[in-house]
Amino acid sequence: MAQSSRLVVELQERPRPGEVIMLPNGERVRVRHIGVPWLLPPKAVCNDDKCPWHGHVKVRGTILEGRVVSVYMGQVVIQHEWLHYSPKYKRYIRKRRNIHAHLPSCIKVNVGDYVVIGETRPLAKFISFVVLGKRPDDVTSVNPEVKEIQQQ
Ligand SMILES: [Zn+2]
């Protein structure tokens, strides 16, 4: 990776997809549409190449949720849990899997947070997922504000 420096700029307001933001070193970063309509872009802008919002990584395939187990060096380990039906015992089995995912520098997570990850092309030897956002903050609300239109 021929990347000179990793820059992260915190913004006052959450940008909308399509906006272009100028970094202090003169680089222009466009906030991309990642193709997941219920996820909002983060409140910061970075020049990470492997960022789904500001880089060149495309999200395709599955979108999963999980709890952060560990955070290290731009990567996270996420524990994903799901229910699997067993026809023999006629019961659900709780299954879990640890998934390594790339953490873009514009998203800050701690151990125990619930995050949304999306499948991408292989980014490293065992990483083919990227963190898209945190569970309560970056997800659009189920009941949005209703604006009434007054008729004349
Ligand atoms: Zn970013």
Tags for this entry?
152 residues; OB fold (Dihydrolipoamide Acetyltransferase, E2P); two-stranded antiparallel sheet; 43% strand; binds zinc ion; ribosomal protein; rRNA binding; Small ribosomal subunit protein uS17; rRNA-binding; Ribosomal_uS17_archaeal
Short synopsis of the structure:
By secondary structure, the chain is mainly β.
SSE topology sketch:
Blueprint: E1 8-10, E2 20-22, E3 28-30, E4 44-46, E5 63-72, E6 75-86, E7 91-102, E8 114-124, E9 127-134
Antiparallel strand pairs: 1-4, 2-3, 5-6, 5-8, 6-7, 8-9
CATH topology: OB fold (Dihydrolipoamide Acetyltransferase, E2P)
Helix content: under 10%
Q: Which residues form runs of ≥5 with pLDDT under 50?
A: none
CATH class: Mainly Beta
Order of helices and strands: EEEEEEEEE
The fraction of residues in strands falls at: 35-45%
Looking at the overall shape, the CATH architecture is: Beta Barrel
Cα Rg = 18 Å
- Can you give the mean pLDDT? 88
How many H/I helical runs? 0
Q: Which overall shape is indicated by the principal axes computed on the Cα atoms?
A: globular
Strand order of the largest sheet: 7-6-5-8-9
Backbone structural class: mainly beta
Report the major sheet: 5 strands, antiparallel
- Structure ligands: zinc ion
Q: Give the termini separation.
A: 60 Å
| Total count of strands | 9
Any idea how many domains?
1
